Amino acid sequence: MSPYIETERLVLRPWMQGDAEEALSIYGSQQVSRWLTPDLRAVRTPEEMQTVLRRWSDVDDRSVVGHWAARSRRDGAVVGGLSLQYAPPGGDSVTITWQLAPTAWGNGYATEAGAALIRWAMHERGVIEVFAVVQPDNERAAATAERIGMEWITELGHLTQGRYQVYRIRHGDLDYHE
């Protein structure tokens, strides 16, 4: 199970089965789902979302890998979700993703939550660097990566999946951005 991580305005905690409706309101939103992987884009019902949440909860608590719900400390509402995953699976590189409910956009939650999750991964789990892989036309995600302190390092291209911008932050960069 992933740990709880607190920020000034948010609590990041593992997704729970009772979160399916709130999770679906984020991941099922057309404004959000257009940027998701095909397996998440296909989730359309609370039952399908519960299946995803069950899969996400099956994580070793010593691992850096996990999925978190971002809840507002003010009112307890789920405002988004984040994940850390190895890419490629079983590899050493860790990637971060963040998705916010469209109603939560523009409040700095993705930056706050993303920075906290990266600090946790580096300080508590010894991760040396974290990557974000962003579609080139996803300007919001690119701006968030930069606000977190990540720097653009390259563009990856794939014949069938398109181009992606890759951002990275290293452990040594944290001191500069904290």
Structure overview:
It is a single chain. The protein is α+β, with helices and mostly antiparallel strands and 178 residues long. It has one domain: Gcn5-related N-acetyltransferase (GNAT) (Aminopeptidase, 3-Layer(aba) Sandwich), CATH 3.40.630.30. Helices cover 35% and strands 30% of the residues. It has 7 helices and 8 strands. Strands 1-2-3-4-5-6-8-7 form an 8-stranded mixed sheet, with helices on both faces. Strand 3 and strand 4 form a beta hairpin. Helix 1 crosses helix 4 and helix 5 packs across helix 6. The radius of gyration is 15 Å and the shape is globular. It starts with a strand and ends with a helix. The mean pLDDT is 86.
Short description:
With 178 residues, the protein is of the alpha+beta class.
Q: What is the averaged pLDDT score?
A: 86
Question: Radius of gyration, Cα only, in angstroms?
Answer: 15 Å
How many distinct beta strands? 8
Major sheet: arrangement of strands:
1-2-3-4-5-6-8-7
The coarse overall form would be globular
Helical element count?
Answer: 7
Strand content: 25-35%
Assigned CATH superfamily: Gcn5-related N-acetyltransferase (GNAT)
Category by helix and strand content: alpha+beta
Major sheet: size, sense and barrel closure? 8 strands, mixed
Tell me roughly what share of residues is in helical segments: 25-40%
Low-confidence stretches: none
Q: What is the end-to-end distance? A: 27 Å
The total tally of domains equals 1
CATH fold-type name = Aminopeptidase
Which architecture would the CATH scheme give at its second level?
A: 3-Layer(aba) Sandwich
Top-tier CATH class: Alpha Beta
> What order do the helices and strands follow?
EEHHHHEEEHEHEEH
